[in-house]
Design goal:
Layout: H1 3-18, H2 21-35, H3 45-60, H4 68-79
Length: 81
């Protein structure tokens, strides 16, 4: 679909949305999501690097990990969870 045709279709469709309050609120949410810039992560890059290093050690067999079930049993035994 060409840009002009798409623009006309969207204008027509927006007219339908404006008449329905619930759809209008959804449309507003979409526009808000589109217009907001992505925010920087609050997690420092060094933490991502640490996780990547630990993952590589785990994958290479240098370190071991417990399953969630094993971890849950240890927590339950130690803290009564």
């Amino acid at each position: 679909m060409e840009t002009k045709e798409l623009r006309r279709k969207l204008i027509k469709d927006f007219g339908k949305f404006i008449d329905d309050d619930s759809k209008l609120e959804i449309l507003e949410s979409v526009f808000d999501a589109i217009s907001h810039d992505e925010k920087e992560s609050v997690i420092p890059g060094s933490h991502y690097n640490l996780v990547a290093e630990q993952r590589e050690k785990y994958l290479s067999g240098e370190i071991e990990a417990s399953s969630w079930e094993e971890t849950e049993k240890r927590l339950n035994a130690k803290y009564g969870f």
